[in-house]
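Sync notes, pocket subgroup
Present: LS, DG
LS reminded everyone that the earlier model was apo-only. Rerun requested with iron/sulfur cluster included. Inputs:
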Amino acid sequence: MHLAKAIRKTQCAIRPLENPFPAPERIFPGLEEIDPETFPDFLDEIGLVGMGGSGFPASEKMRASVGAHTLVINGVECEPDITIDQTVLLHHPLWVQAGANASAKAIGAKQVVLAVKNNPDQRSMLRKLYPEYSIIPFPDRYPAGAEKLILKKLIGKMPPPGVRPYQLGYLVQNVVSLRAIGRAIVDGIPVVERPLTLSMPSTGFYKNIIAPVGLSISEVLETTHLAYDPDRHLITASGRMMGHEVTGDDCIEKTTTSLIILDREPFEGLEHNCIRCGACNTACPLDLHPFALTEFIQKRKTKSTAFRAQMTECFLCGACSAICPARIPLVHTLIEGKKCLS
Ligand code: SF4
Ligand code: SF4
């Protein structure tokens, strides 16, 4: 009896909390009002950059793509150990579709195509979640998700060097970028969070998480209780192939597609001289000559048209470095080569 009285008293004391923060003003009015003029400004307002890893200003890409006939949702995630695009496609279809439909409307696209890895089970789920889009499967092989290779499949031949997707009538947008657009349209939330894969393959730990942009990596690792030891492990951000090493003091960025914790030991082997095996040429998906390019860069012979044309095409996928039996970090030199183009 006393207890019931006490509960009633407590219930009477409960008042709805007053929210000191007013509801966010919608920064975008709705799908029906989207037009090519205002949409790129909206992308700037929400702070969107290419979240597939490029970090390219999304508004510029959108402006250039007005008039494209097809929007391609790029879900062909191909870096080993990263599954965030597939996870977002399966778990956040509302936001992805809102972002895709808005982008398609803004550029005047006639169709939306969903490019995904060739996984029959997943394809049937995606068909149910995205009934309005055509689904095109791509090989589950690195670097099948590169924009250029997606276009190669869509147009039936390798796009000519230097030609951008919009010049061929396509806008290729990463899944997480479209999710961010949808989140802003549906909920009025700008780009303040980053879905990413967090993994430590040596312990079998794989998770997809959403982290606030700006959170330190050590805070992320603390919350997941991972046995990370900086003396024994290194952290790569945004992929084993295209990513870079980070430390616990670095922060989650809008372009952080993943954090992978790897044992240091296999990476500490010695680099040898090139044995001219040609494996790097064979591995390059664009038929470039990676070792020759690195020689040009090291000898500072970077003015020739041939060098500049090949260097412009290289998208730093790292396939050449990964295959090299002499452990030459070709891609590190190629990153320097990119700087010679500006
Ligand atoms: S990083 Fe290497 S394999 Fe990849 S595109 Fe450039 S040269 Fe080719
Ligand atoms: S794969 Fe390595 S060793 Fe072989 S040619 Fe290329 S740089 Fe030289």
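DG: The CA atoms of residues 40 and 59 lie 4 Å apart.
LS: The chain has three domains: 31-187, 194-268, 279-339.
Action: DG to write up.
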